[in-house]
Design a protein that fits this description.
Layout (H helix, E strand, L loop, with lengths): L4 E7 L7 H14 L2 E6 L4 H4 L3 E4 L28 H11 L4 E6 L1 H12 L4 E5 L15 H21 L3 E6 L6 H10 L3 E3 L7 H16 L5 E6 L10 E6 L4 E6 L2 H13 L3 E5 L11 H19 L5 E6 L2 E6 L12 H8 L4
The structure holds 6-O-phosphono-beta-D-fructofuranose.
Amino acid sequence: MEETKKLGILTGGGDCPGINAAIRATAKTAIQMGYEVIGIRNGWRGFIDNENKILDSHNTSGIIDRGGTILGTSRWSPFQIEKGPQRVFDGFKKLGLEALVVLGGDGTLSCASRLYKMGLPVVGIPKTIDNDVKETAYTIGFQTSVQIATEALDRLRSTAESHPRVMLLEVMGRHTGWIATFAGMASGADAILIPEIPLDEEGVEELCRMLGERNRRGTTFSVVVVAEGTELEGKTVGKHSFDISKKEKTYGLGGIGNVLGELIGRKTGLETRVSSLDYIQRGGTPVAYDRSLATAFGVKAAELIRDKKYGQMTALKGNKITSVLLEKVADGVKTVSLNAYRIAQIFFG
Ligand code: F6P
């Protein structure tokens, strides 16, 4: 009797809305193709800790609208320990897997690409609110974070108008400004600050001049969105957090909003207040777009596995779902297209 084909699925890196929709689509499509599907828990660690669970049509139903990931995730990489990759291969073999689908951002997918070159039959699905994975127009989670940030900016505008004040909102995005650019454009922000356009002293002066000018001509409020990775005079602003997986303090991005808010208030004399969305922009139910993108990516990933087209990542090119070589996304990130930024810039000031 033919042995049942087994497919593994894991989610690595930061969680985001839409991951569960992708798990659902990958698992249900693979089950229809005759696979038994095994979810590896907490990212690559699940192979080391032997933590996994069978995914069936029952426990992958009713999750399309759930935020986070039912498998758990971690930022742990097998390349950070001695013989880590070998232990992943051993875990893979122990489960009797034929192949693996990996949902990740640039870090997890780079890891997947390295393991593929070492012989692991893997297919990637790009997910991150940052939208900084190369070779795909959008990543799962991005549109939801843009929607959350846009709603926050709309709310800040109403309170800015009432006081009147300059309201700053800090959003995530790591070292790119996709969330800030799209949410800033959608909410009509008066200025958008992103890592792709580092702020120097002159840039800060120009921003303050614009805000002061608005005030002088009677528009007594402004809304400014700043991406967390924006550099101020060549430096990013960070915060310390304790990462148990590394048993040490790690240095996360965050805090540029407060630094900039203080500068603006001092230089313009305008009342300035700062908000930060932090993890709120990464939680909760995915918008319809992300559910559909995740579903289409999940089906495509299952088809790539069926056809043994490993070393590929599902991708959105224009409005077409396709696939690209995983190695092409392994190094570096996709920065904001300055055409998009220039469109938003028309409405600054
Ligand atoms: O990569 C997604 C992301 O939310 C980034 O936008 C942010 O800088 C980072 O994760 C935060 O990392 P952590 O969840 O480890 O604090």
